[in-house]
């Protein structure tokens, strides 16, 4: 694979993931817990022949499976598993991604059996219900990792902003010194020097505007 292709397929860096995206990911991860319980509940009601329960169970399972795909692979502006901590949470020693896939398979089997009134429906439903609580613990742990990553990235982004402000401030100060020295030199020179003084004055004005922008940005970020 070429370097260009590797960059195209590389996950985004932490600072590329916005707070809005992180909020969406946290909400999606947390919602998976509710969806997993809803799947089991509606499957149980469908087994008891409650009207509409089977259709809701199927629809909820589709949503659960689709959300899992988005969280792991990414889609529509969402980055997938963009950090080592998230990859470990899904694919590490607990094998959470595989357990989620197994749950989806169990739910699909149970719902299909119930829909066909199969003799195996009761056992399939029991297997599904028995898998919910262990899965909930894993889904809760995954959501916690998303929340931890959100806090970590927020700190990293603030540090990056502070570093940028410091670099801009340093440049502005150096430019201000240069323009001030230029005005002094120009005041001791001939007509050409006086023309240079005009340029130095303009530069001084620019550096003052730059300093004002930096100060305003510092105030805004500190108040946020």
From TrEMBL:
The keyword Transcription regulation does not apply. It is found in: Membrane. Keywords: Membrane, Transmembrane, Transmembrane helix. Its main location: membrane. SUPFAM superfamilies: Methyl-accepting chemotaxis protein (MCP) signaling domain. Pfam families: PilJ. It comes from the Bacteria. Residues 24-87 form the NarX-like N-terminal domain. The keyword Transferase does not apply. It is a multi-pass membrane protein. This is NarX-like N-terminal domain-containing protein. It comes from Paraburkholderia terricola. The lineage of its organism: Bacteria, Pseudomonadati, Pseudomonadota, Betaproteobacteria, Burkholderiales.
């Amino acid at each position: 694979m070429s370097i260009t292709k590797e960059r195209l397929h590389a996950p985004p860096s932490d600072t590329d993931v916005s707070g809005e995206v992180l909020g969406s990911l946290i909400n999606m991860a947390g919602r998976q817990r509710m969806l997993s319980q809803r799947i089991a509940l509606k499957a149980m009601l469908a087994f008891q022949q409650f009207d509409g329960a089977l259709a809701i169970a199927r629809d909820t399972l589709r949503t659960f499976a689709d959300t899992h795909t988005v969280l792991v692979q990414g889609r529509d502006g969402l980055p997938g598993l963009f950090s080592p901590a998230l990859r470990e949470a899904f694919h590490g020693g607990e094998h959470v991604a595989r357990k989620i896939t197994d749950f989806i398979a169990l739910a699909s089997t149970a719902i299909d059996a119930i829909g066909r009134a199969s003799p195996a429906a009761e056992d399939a439903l029991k297997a599904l219900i028995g898998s919910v609580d262990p899965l909930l613990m894993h889904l809760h742990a995954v959501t916690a990792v998303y929340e931890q990553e959100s806090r970590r990235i927020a700190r990293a982004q603030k540090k990056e902003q502070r570093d940028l402000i410091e670099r801009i401030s340093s440049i502005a100060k150096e430019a201000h010194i240069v323009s001030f020295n230029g005005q002094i030199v120009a005041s001791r020179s001939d007509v050409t020097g006086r023309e240079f003084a005009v340029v130095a004055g303009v530069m001084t004005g620019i550096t003052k505007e730059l300093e004002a922008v930096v100060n305003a940005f510092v105030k805004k970020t500190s108040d946020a």
